[in-house]
Design a protein that fits this description.
31% of the residues lie in helices and 27% in strands. By secondary structure, it is α/β, with parallel strands linked by helices. The strands form four sheets. An eight-stranded mixed beta sheet has the order 14-13-9-12-11-10-17-18. A hairpin with a 2-residue loop joins strand 13 and strand 14. The radius of gyration is 21 Å and the shape is globular.
């Protein structure tokens, strides 16, 4: 069977590393999506590549950026792709439709766009027989998530949510060990990014989405996957404000959001557990890490603690003016001995390869959609509780009350 053709929807930091007319200042200076797919094409797992954004006039600069910082670094790695809209088009928010229309049923797309656009883009692709990878969160609304599940089954396509922390070696090991520690009791997590990210996200921060959707989604998914016999039943949210507004974000933009979630074990005499998830995008500029990220999981037969901010690897450079802690376990950008990209073991890379391999297995009839769900991959079915919690958290903030989560016969709703 021919390699999978993939359309990249979204041309920003995560796809290309190109932000505001130049290289991103974050830890994704050459992106993740594009580089990974270019390398998967070199390895024969991916075929034709294309990319679509709302502004075609950016593509000449994006191509120059990719040639200089990827092709010239990794043995002339092929960074070619078809682009939509044309280079002469300054803005076309519906360009994803023509780009998807250029695909054939059985091809795939990746979606790395603002949260509110995930649902319409994914739905348009699914209804045309296209397999879909969506960055987290899958959707902002629980109703949209459930509709995508229904439509994906109707059209026989695979939808994968890019929860890459599931493939972090420490987190992956912890998820396996948690199953042997008895009943879930308590989970606490914290994840942050520096204030500089608000410049990258200023077009939508506080308007179309919030820091909880963006960062709490990581650890809520980890908790959900560690305790699959539990379901969330209520959410109370709290947010702090002031710093983001001082930096020019729209009024009401939260700096930090904490969600307190009540979990209940399925069964006749349910056990209860508590999860507390905190996310912030107003962390210090010179903290030495791009993202603090850690959690504590307590169960009836043991506990797990993971701190993935400082991994025993620090670098001091005069040009940086500070000590830096890097994370090559996510994306390893150093080339191998022959000059090729060598980041295939990074969990950012693995996440995309898992999607490509799953779609290929489905197309070759080596796996069914049900079997892919049963493998514990972050599919739409396996991430619905995360979407329920995130929307409930947003409602709790807006309405200043606790929001109940109801689930019966596989259907979920908020009250």
């Amino acid at each position: 069977m021919a390699p999978l053709n993939v359309l990249m929807v979204g041309t920003g930091e995560y796809t290309t590393g190109f932000v505001g007319g130049g290289m991103s200042g974050s830890d994704k200076k050459v992106g993740v999506v594009g580089l990974t797919l270019f390398d998967l094409r070199r390895r024969g797992k991916v075929g034709k590549l294309s990319m679509v954004g709302t502004s075609g006039s950016k593509f000449p600069a994006i191509r120059e950026h990719l040639h200089k910082n990827i092709s010239s670094v990794y043995n002339n790695l092929d960074v070619s792709f078809d682009s939509f809209p044309s280079d002469e088009t300054s803005r076309d928010p519906d360009s994803y439709k023509s780009a998807i229309d250029a695909l054939s049923p059985g091809d795939a797309i990746t979606i790395f766009t603002p949260d509110t656009t995930h649902y319409p883009i994914a739905l348009y692709a699914i209804q045309r027989g296209i397999h879909v990878l969506i960055t987290k969160p899958a959707t902002k609304l629980l109703s949209h998530h459930q509709h995508l599940i229904s439509e994906s089954r109707k059209h026989g396509v695979f939808v994968f949510i890019e929860h890459h922390k599931r493939f972090d070696p420490a987190y992956s090991d912890a998820r396996a060990r948690a199953k042997k520690l008895g009943d879930f009791n308590y989970f606490y997590s914290y994840m942050s990014q520096p204030k500089s990210q608000l410049e990258t996200f200023k077009a939508w921060a506080g308007k179309e989405s919030d820091i909880s959707y963006y960062l709490n989604s990581h650890h809520i998914d980890i908790n959900e996957s560690m305790a699959p016999s539990y379901r969330p039943v209520r959410v109370t949210a709290n947010g702090s404000r002031g710093t983001a507004e001082d930096l020019g974000c729209v009024g009401g933009t939260e700096d930090t959001i904490s969600l307190i979630v009540g979990w209940e074990k399925r069964g006749e005499s349910p056990r209860m557990a508590t999860g507390v998830y905190t996310a912030s995008w107003t962390a210090p500029q010179r903290a030495g890490v791009h993202s603090n990220q850690y959690f504590h999981y307590l169960a009836s037969g043991g506990e797990i603690r993971i701190d993935q901010a400082k991994r025993g690897y620090d670098v001091a450079e005069d040009s940086a003016g500070q000590l830096m802690w890097y994370n090559p376990f996510y994306m390893k950008y150093a080339p191998d001995e022959e000059g090729n990209f060598n980041g295939q073991t990074g969990y950012g890379y693995i996440s995309f390869e898992k999607f490509v391999d799953a779609v290929t297995a489905l197309k070759e009839k080596r796996a069914t959609l049900d079997e892919l769900d049963d493998r514990g991959l972050p599919t739409l079915k396996n991430t619905i509780a995360t979407t329920a919690i995130l929307e409930a958290g947003r409602r709790s903030l807006n309405e200043r009350r606790t929001v109940e989560i109801m689930e019966k016969d596989g259907q979920w709703e908020l009250r």
